[in-house]
Write a structure and sequence with these properties.
Strand order of the largest sheet: 3-2-1-4-5-7-6
Helix content: 55-70%
Low-confidence stretches: 1-7, 31-61, 279-303, 347-351
Number of helices: 17
Mean pLDDT: 75
Structural class: alpha/beta
Order of helices and strands: HHHHHHHHHHEHEHEHEHEHHEHE
Strand content: 5-15%
Radius of gyration: 56 Å
Distance between the termini: 89 Å
Number of strands: 7
Length: 531
């Protein structure tokens, strides 16, 4: 550290400065007396018009300029000799001397100033070292956090993959069962067709035997009549009769063979069409019923009726297995009650149905409407589901939804609903459903369609395909656009049914938020559009 110890030269300089200050003060005390003298006499001495050194004529300054300079000088001197200023301030205000003393003071204090600057630099170095330590500590914490995040993501990936594998195994087992069911149906159809073919062949054999017996009787009768003729006539007539009989028999056999060949060809074509249709997914519409197929001979209507009943039963059992308990479904559907109460007329009689539920299924929504004292009618193509609704006292009807809505009087309905129905429909059919609902609704009426939410990756990639009749998931923004584009004045999206809290990642990192949003977010959403 540099010590501030002035030497002998510094002491002498200080003494000289003090003497100079004293002499300046003594001169300043007598300076006002000179100013009190005649200004005319003092003017050549302080402001000479012609310099003595140079024998050059110069222009005299105007009197105003001289007065202004005198005023400045007077103000300067008044400030210099003011009693309010300290000696130090007076010295600093002295021309030239003040600047010289300031420089001397700066030179004297230079070691101290350098010391202060060195101390400040050392302090800055310490702060930089502390900042480096903090940065190192933060980097270590970030590395630990990154390791934790990686481990968490790996654990989540493992859990998700495990669930996906379990779901895949369940689907494969379901597909195997479905294939066995389809194979049994196909075998049953083939056996029935074979039985019909055998019956037809047996009838053909019996007919041929009867014809042969008739021909035998006729031949015996003819032979008996020929015996009465002579031998030549008998032989000639016998040959003619035999030739005609053979010709007629051959013609009949040809006709029968052609007819049998045509019928067998038709049966083979019909069987091929039916077997091909068994592999087409369009055979199963929304409610699981088989579409119209090519008829087969004899017992076709009965066979189609049995298959339709079988598929209706299959999808009824399927809904019972995967839809959930009735009480739970009714509790979930209560979220739509405020919208329905807003538009349902309180004066509507029980005989007037102002709410139509498309694809009513087991009738949970109809039952909830009945509990709330509202009139509602369910429409479904599955006869067993409609019968189940009627058995428990609900209003339901077997009909095509779009055709039924088109038959209604324009502007006669308040609400049209459809829960998990639009994902079953092709694009053209879905547009037709929007148009039919818009025409049937009164001004201010609403349509409510609930469907799986593909924004949830687990739903969009796996759970959506639990139902083999699902076609394509519908993005919420697309459903909203379709409603407004077809003429609804307002459409909103309500996201529903997120995964329980025990599925969520409870961290506060961005990864946790992304996982909770795209894997465990809303599983369904509802489109609520107003006319």
């Amino acid at each position: 550290m540099i010590e501030n110890k002035p030497g002998a030269a510094n002491v002498e300089t200080v003494h000289n400065i003090e003497e100079l200050i004293q002499s300046t003060l003594s001169v300043a005390d007598s300076f006002p007396n000179h100013l009190s003298d005649s200004r005319a006499n003092d003017r050549p001495r302080f402001f000479p018009e012609t310099p003595e050194i140079l024998n050059v004529q110069i222009v005299s300054l105007p009197s105003e300029s001289v007065s202004e300079g005198q005023s400045r000088l007077r103000a300067r001197l008044n400030k210099l000799f003011s009693k309010d200023l300290s000696v130090k301030e007076k010295i600093r205000a002295t021309p030239l001397l003040g600047y010289a003393l300031a420089w001397v003071n700066a030179l004297v204090k230079l070691p101290v100033t350098r010391h202060h600057h060195q101390v400040d630099i050392d302090l800055l170095h310490r702060k930089l070292a502390l900042n480096d330590e903090k940065i190192t500590h933060v980097n270590a914490r970030l590395s630990a956090a990154q390791s934790y995040i990686d481990a968490r993501v790996e654990l989540l990936n493992h859990e998700v993959n495990s669930k996906i594998d379990a779901i895949r195994n369940a689907l494969e087992s379901r597909l195997e069962v479905q294939e066995k069911i389809d194979a049994s149906f196909r075998l049953k159809e083939i056996e029935e067709i074979q039985c019909a073919t055998r019956l037809y062949e047996l009838e053909s054999v019996r007919s041929a035997a009867r014809l042969h017996e008739i021909e035998s009787v006729r031949s015996a009768h003819r032979l008996h009549s020929m015996e009465m003729l002579d031998i030549g006539t008998r032989l000639m007539k016998l040959e003619q009769i035999e030739g005609a009989r053979k010709l007629k028999h051959y013609a009949r056999l040809l006709q029968m063979s052609q007819k049998e060949s045509s019928e067998l060809k038709n049966q083979v074509d019909q069987l091929s069409v039916r077997l091909a249709q068994m592999h087409v997914s369009d055979d199963l519409p929304v409610d699981g019923r088989l579409r119209d197929r090519v008829d087969v001979p004899n017992n076709n209507v009965q066979i189609d009726s049995l298959k339709k009943a079988s598929f209706d039963q299959f999808f009824s059992d399927f809904e019972d297995a995967f839809r959930g308990e009735r009480a739970e479904i009714k509790r979930r559907l209560e979220v739509y009650l405020p919208y329905v109460r807003e538009v349902m007329s309180p004066s509507a009689g029980q005989s007037d149905f102002h709410l139509i539920d498309v694809g009513c299924g087991r009738g949970e929504w109809l039952e909830l409407m009945t509990d709330q004292g509202m009139s509602a009618l369910g429409i479904d193509l599955n006869e067993q589901k409609v019968k189940a609704c009627i058995d428990v006292g609900l209003a339901a009807k077997t009909a095509d939804a779009i055709s039924f809505l088109r038959e209604q009087e324009v502007g006669s309905l308040s609400v049209v609903t459809g829960f998990h129905i639009i994902e079953h429909l092709p694009f053209e059919t879905l547009i037709a459903l929007f148009d039919a609902a818009l025409a049937a609704l009164k001004p201010g009426g609403i349509v409510i369609f609930e469907t799986p939410n593909p924004e949830n990756l687990l739903v969009g990639s796996c759970n959506f395909y639990f139902d083999p009749t699902h076609l394509n998931p519908i993005v919420p923004a697309v459903a909203q656009f379709m409603a407004t584009q077809r003429g609804f004045s307002h459409a909103e999206i309500m996201r529903l049914h997120p995964y329980p809290d025990d599925h969520l990642a409870h961290g506060e990192t961005e990864v946790d938020h992304i996982v909770n949003r795209y894997l465990f977010g809303a599983q369904d959403y509802a489109l609520i559009a107003r006319k």
